Amino acid sequence: MRRSGLLVYEILQKLGGMVQEGMTTWDLELVAVKMMEDAGAKPAFKNYYVPAAGERYRFVLCTSVNDEIVHGMPNPKRVLKNGDIVSIDTGVSLAGYFGDSALTVGVGELSEQAKKLLKVTEESLELAIDKVRDGNRLFDICGTVQEYVEGNGFSIVKEYVGHGIGTQLHEEPQVPNYVDRRNENPRLREGMVLAIEPMVNAGRPEAKVLKDKWTAVAKDGSYSAHFEHCVAVTANGPWVLTRP
Fold this sequence. Notes:
It is a single chain. This protein is α+β, with helices and mostly antiparallel strands. The chain has one domain (2-240): Creatinase/methionine aminopeptidase superfamily (Creatine Amidinohydrolase, Alpha-Beta Complex). Helix content is 26%, strand content 29%. The protein contains four helices and 17 strands. A hairpin with a 6-residue loop joins strand 9 and strand 10 (171-175).
């Protein structure tokens, strides 16, 4: 999983550094495909079947721009403009073990609200990572994200959550970015790996899926940011597998 995680990190760092006005989300897809092929890795997202969509996903990346929360599809016609934000989410499998990570980057000059949205979302992830410790409970992670995000005036997307990860891309437990008392609250144990991924809207929390059956957007049209890391529970505290 560490090997997969570091490859995902390298891909996202490359793509994040490429983002600029005038390029398309398809440009990012092409680079990611080549990097995965060169590393001998299998894309985690491509051909992944989602019952709600009724079909398999066709790309190695999810590229979600502005009000798109998650599952935005790379498109040669989607040209990035000054002031846009784009979430780049991807995963790979190496030797049967998965890595999954996401970041959101700005294009050119961002509004002050957009800058704050990216900063708060990423900071909420870092605070949650610190809770990935043997003996803590799942709600320690969920509540940390929720408290920080809402305390800064933004909204948690509740329809989409993080997850366990290992020999499958999505494993138990689900990792919401808010505390839902209806869910189980398992104790964290050494050896568990969680994909923690705050999805945060600048406006209201509600989401809807577009007619393409994949792209989830903020219902009110506000910007949305997304950051993700895979984090292992170890005897020495949290180990982020998706960065050096």
